[in-house]
Amino acid sequence: MPDCAPSGAVAGVNEATAHGARHAPLGRFLIPSLIGAMVFLCPIYADGAWTILLGVAADALRAFIGDAMPALLLSIVTLSTLLSIAGALNPGLQQRYSEHGVTRVFSVPLFWLALRLLGTLCAWLIVFKAGPEFIWNEYTGAVALFDLGGTIVTIFLCASFLLPMLTDYGLMEFVGTLLQPVFRRLFTLPGRAAVDALASWLAAAAVGVLITISQYENGHYSRREAIVIATNFSVTSLPFCLFVIEFIGLREHFFSVYATIVSIGLCCAILLPRLPPLRGIRPLPNDTVGPDGAGEVPERSSLLQRATSAARRRAASSPNAQQYLATSAQHVMDIWMGLVPLVVLIGTLGLAVAEFTPVMQILSAPLIPVLDWFGLPDARAAAPTFMVGFLDMFLPAAIGQGVESELTRFVIAAVSLTQLIYLSEVGSLLLRSALKVNVLTLLSIFVMRTLVGFPIAVLAANLFMG
Fold first, then answer.
1. How far apart are CA 376 and CA 369, in angstroms?
2. Helix, strand, coil proportions of the chain in percent (round to 5)?
3. pTM for the complete prediction?
4. How far apart are CA 294 and CA 310, in angstroms?
């Protein structure tokens, strides 16, 4: 299991899907699943905006932490590095704590240890505003540590303890069975991928990725299916889409921009799994894929009966209270210790490159003639926005806000919110996961999504604003 995957899996999941597996009472499936659906999937109106209960809980937690957040973040990244160094110097610690499921906190390759160390160094410089200004500037390190890092701390603390209700009590099996025919035919994916997409849409893209990684580790997805889902269905959340669209100055065009985002997302989800590099992804030697559907229920049964039976079999192997709490606590530690230092490092350096160097302008120069050919005004100012999204999801909006043309800002918003692959969060989760994805593959998918999305965004912008 990778550092970042909150699977909630327990021993017995394979037995629960085997021939003759017992069925849990209907309530054991329905009650936790309904709670999970309410927390992750049901929109609510709070503080003048649409959000979900997970978002409300994370906001309340952040308000509770308040001014102590910098000290908490600094403690997390420092402890992460110290424990990693201790594990590297004393391999016995890995064996000693393996029975508690926290080996991954101590056991990291040298490369990831170096990244943790650099991320921790950045965090100290940011908090105390020491060293080069490009590290601790309010538009670089401060955004990476306090905005991105703070969001990870609060969202994933809440998500780690609530996510098993969505994944471990049968809801995935229920939805997967109902939607399997449609998803197989349209997207070449299991039906349970719909839950991953919904969780991303209403919560956060990273939540969808975590669910996908969890389901892969539990044997419900092949490696190709998991990577396709994580890179095509872990969509940018609806609240964040609203935030970006408002930030870039297009609030009055929200519905037309969002309709464009949905159209691009569907086109990418249909096309990209059938094209390289996703088409050629191969399984790993230890991959095991279990059944996605109704298992032993006769085919003559109704679709709803098969879905309910699959859900009750999964609920029969769901964790007890002790397992639930122990696994959730382990996942909090994995995410905090493994992801926060990496996000701080990548976010700081990426924002620094964009803000303080001409690198992005130089790299994006070949795009200017292309944008001119498509008739986009302010092509020179807009060109970097189509590249920086690979580093961080906030960068295109931050740079694009200064573009004068409303039509061009429409295209920037629509494309940036459908590129999906950004190293500061989703990319980091995938790189550290058991899926064994490399940076080149992620960059290729990012480019493919941009190539598919850009013409659609230009067409929509001219249609809605021309």
1. 10
2. 70, 0, 25
3. 0.72
4. 5
Query: Could you give the 3-state DSSP secondary structure of residue 253?
Result: helix
Residues 6+ apart with CB under 8 A from 440: none
CB-CB contact of 417 with 438 (8 Å): no
Q: Where are the alpha helices (DSSP H) in 218-363?
A: 223-232, 238-247, 254-271, 303-316, 321-356, 359-363
- CB-count exposure of residue 126 (10 Å: 0-12, 13-18, 19+): buried
| 263 vs 410: CA distance, rounded Å | 14
Q: Taking the chain (466 residues) in consecutive chunks of 10 residues, what is each chunk's mean pLDDT?
A: 37 36 83 90 74 83 94 95 85 61 68 90 96 92 87 86 87 83 82 77 75 86 91 80 81 87 93 92 76 47 86 90 88 84 86 86 93 94 91 81 92 94 84 90 95 97 89
Cβ 4 vs Cβ 334: under 8 Å: yes
Instruction: Output the CA torsion sign for 250, 256, 262, 266.
Output: negative
- Report how far residue 47's alpha carbon sits from residue 273's, in angstroms, rounded to the nearest whole number: 39
Instruction: Please answer whether residues 330 and 322 qualify as being in contact, where contact means their C-beta atoms are separated by less than 8 angstroms.
Output: no
Q: Give the DSSP H or E segment for 52.
A: strand 49-52
